[in-house]
Amino acid sequence: MARxxxxxxxxxxxxxxxxxxxxxxxxxxxxxxxxxxxxDREVLVCPPATLVMAVADAVKGSGLLVGGExxxxxxxxxxxxxxxxxxxxxxxxxxxxxxxxxxRTDHGEKDATVRAKAEAAWRxxxxxxxxxxxxxxxxxxxxTLAVLETQLKGxxxxxxxxxxxxxxxxxxWAIGTGKTPTTPEVAAAHAHxxxxxxxxxxxxxxxxxxxxxxxxxxxxxxxxxxxxxxxALVGGAALKADEFLAIAKAx
Length: 251
Ligand code: PEP
What we know:
Layout: E1 8-12, H1 19-36, E2 42-46, H2 52-59, E3 65-68, H3 85-91, E4 95-98, H4 101-106, H5 111-124, E5 127-132, H6 136-140, H7 144-155, E6 166-169, H8 183-197, E7 208-212, H9 217-224, E8 231-234, H10 241-249
Parallel strand pairs: 1-2, 1-8, 2-3, 3-4, 4-5, 5-6, 6-7, 7-8
């Protein structure tokens, strides 16, 4: 039987924020979450690694969840500058984004790396949000669904279940551009993702699928209403409490 999919609104702060502003932002979001008193949705912020502990401490008890933006596949060792999933957990994180297109592009991360990071998240007791998405060239070449299928099959580790996995569909060309796919295009991509998940995850109907790419308060209702969309992964709009909370309210 399908597990109930609790909508998740996740904010990816990327490489933005110094302590004072970040704490103020996190507290403002936490206040909105508290006031919302939502039992029917989850709200998550993923600050840069330097701020995870401070943000987690600042929002403790509010219901706002805190995650990391990325992790290394190993638990510890000679990996200068990297952060392990265990370190994120120790800092107060409950989730971690893996395979974001900016990691895939800036750091050459391939599906196998993303899969190892998702496994690392499980090892540390974190919930991985595995990102996939096609480039503009791939979309224009009609390869969107094939690309999503390849990325899913390569990035999701064996042993995945609905309780241990969130997938974010983020068309690369929609990230930070103000452009979004149409609602039917989002629904088609998500339907395909769920179909492919059917061959990978025993309870695929229960896996939460987030849409990400230029989500803001003004388009959230429409995008979140697309078939098989169980929430959003939000970049730029997550840096403004009002805007991010408007997306959370749109669920
Ligand atoms: C993202 O980086 O995950 C993202 C969706 O960014 P934006 O909302 O700014 O497009």
